[in-house]
Design a protein that fits this description.
Blueprint lengths: L4 E9 L7 E11 L2 E7 L2 E24 L4 E23 L2 E6 L9 E13 L3 E10 L15 E9 L2
Antiparallel strand pairs: 1-2, 2-4, 3-4, 4-5, 5-6, 5-7, 7-8, 8-9
Length: about 160
């Protein structure tokens, strides 16, 4: 499912490791979700889930500047921690539609943890274009019966650094 990420980011240079290294941390509101469609006997069924998380990724990265310091490339990786804030799951079966809270006792766990990877371009010290991937390591499903669910997110973004 297509979603969004919006938040704040802080970056701290770490030349004591090696020139170009940095640490960054974020506080991001992230919409995630999934859609499943299938048949349950003679009944067509689908589930649409749209949970929203407060994510806190903590990465270590490296950037290499060129073009007189106006352009550069960067890459970072590290863990993320997330807490489910709110969301809605919609269940469609036959002619019935049921909406429930994404984080109710029988749906998704609120806590998520995983690893993230990001890379991109930096321009004029303030603008960034990037792509990234988050790989959830926690089974967030509370359904049971062998049903596992992990957050996996690919994202494309732009940011302005103050």
């Amino acid at each position: 499912r297509v979603g969004f990420r919006a938040g704040f980011r802080a970056e701290m240079d770490a030349p004591f490791i090696f020139k170009g290294f940095y640490f960054d941390g974020e506080a991001v509101l992230s919409s995630k979700g999934a859609e499943y469609t299938g048949a349950n006997g003679d009944t067509y069924a689908s589930v649409t889930s749209r949970p929203y998380y407060l994510e806190v990724p903590i990465h270590i990265g490296y950037k290499y500047m060129f073009g007189g310091g106006n352009f550069g490339v960067f890459g970072s990786f590290g863990p993320y921690f997330a807490i489910g804030l709110f969301g809605t799951d919609k269940y469609y079966a036959g002619n019935e539609t049921v909406k429930v809270d994404s984080f109710s006792d029988s749906n998704l766990k609120r806590f998520d943890f995983g690893l993230g990877l990001r890379g991109g371009l930096t321009m004029f010290d303030h603008y960034r274009l990037y792509i990234g991937y988050d790989w959830g390591l926690v089974n967030i499903s509370q359904i049971g019966n062998g049903v596992d669910a992990y957050n996996r997110n690919f994202y494309i973004g732009a940011s302005y650094m103050f």
